[in-house]
């Protein structure tokens, strides 16, 4: 059974104990740490159930409300007992004995107790002549599976002659499970069908609205039943199987026999759940066991029919409670359990966010929002290993911030602080406070860019009130530009420094509707002046306006501007550049066209250009991923472009732009040259989660890698010729990156520039 450890290292966990949990209590720092540790443990358990407990798919459980109540209880509690009650009450809403709070300290007389006294499998005689096969001590003594198999096979003749049979399977785990197949097969006779395991399965975490469903999927997987039959003489004898948590649920073969009425089942030990699960460690020596699978019988009913449960006792002790229960079942002194009553219902749609009242959120709702974000990122964000700060510390670091965020602004800042910890250029929150602080929904019709420390106007796209290309912005609304950039930078998540500055460029001049931006600039002549420029609704400012979208440049080099080239224009564009000695593909700014439509015209055969990896976690394998090869098929193998290609990139080359860069690299190979500055390093399809009051958080959900396996997140595409614009070049109207690409293509020997 997998065990997930607490997020905080053991040496940082608080000492057990309650005490006054108010800030005025003695030992304030220790008590605050205790509250944080308790809430962090609660969130971890809630997150495991949220994404892996199968019943949340079938049953209408308000799991978010359960967390909110538990948070209130933890904050109101004063000691370890109150904490235990809070967690137990949260889990109780599932109405599942397979998900419950457990102690991590082994109890006396537990499942492993007494095994030292065994030399291996043994055959004993019960009080009424029953044959009792004790297999419990074998694995403990280090025997291998083949040896156990031989022992079990040797018992078959005794089984056939017995009047009744008890098999003590305790302690036989999955590593030697196949050794029991001769026993199960003999009891199966002509054959029985195994039940199916149903579990939640993820391929990333899908957005909570119906989009990008082809990339991210979640659902229920159900394995196909298998046929269990005997390859020796069948044994038809009343039988009881005794098992414990080491082999929950007693193997599918044992359950197949129970569903077919061939055996009865006794579970030994306190954790009488008979379902697979995981254990999540909590403070104060506690742990929560969480169901991870459902068992679906051959008749379509879900659940495990346990005929009896008993304290663990000592394996092989004929007077132990577990074996006593087995003897009672065989003697008719105990009634077997009825078959499960529940059938498998149809999965219910995703529950909408729990409604909360407008205004400041309660502390429980704030912690619930943190839990939703943490659980999504913990299991489905593929780049936690690339974060600047250790991700395992995020709950302990940010819980105090969320606890103290008692107004709308503080809560918005807390959510933004969470995204900043992700170092992901796609991690964005649409909270109204953050939108307002970033300048609102209106801006000045110009584009600015940070060049060598100066914020420079690089494009005019409307009535700019006297601003000119090449002006250096010194202040906005009487706030120094450097200070304004620093303020905005604090709550922006970015994959790279240049990517963060790009986002600030977009926000720097923004403000509320119907306002004027007060902008102080230094002109090319060195004159400082202040202009009042009306703000207007944000518009798409296409770069490089005035230059043809595609065609042949005066130097004889072809040019495609993917920020403005529409997919339906691609055929005409390639016709126009077909005879050019070289081709420039401009990937600066977000592409407008389908990248495959461009790259497919560079190849004459199918090529693989990368790998998409999305999280496919289970509680047993938290870091599992699902990989999909990314391939390109040729548009027309007989007419592909075979010249050299220069790709223009900078910090605005991100996400789809970087993926198109991978496509072109794979398609053109050594004919490709990347010219410009470092790319953004934010690549992969985004997903989102919903938070209270209509707030959404987006983040990268897929890890897109090159065909060589190199991760592009936070590193970007590899640039061959590094060149960035200068203030002098902007003022002179030059495109220095384009000039460098033209030079690279036209100064190479002709044999290297053409096919």
From TrEMBL:
Molecular-function annotations in GO: serine-type peptidase activity
Gene Ontology BP terms: proteolysis
Superkingdom as given in the UniProt entry: Bacteria
Gene3D superfamilies: 2-enoyl-CoA Hydratase, Chain A, domain 1
Signal peptide: none
Bias (Pro residues): 336-358
Region (Disordered): 1-29, 297-318, 331-358
Biased composition (Basic and acidic residues): 1-14
Full protein name: Peptidase family S41
Organism: Actinoalloteichus hoggarensis
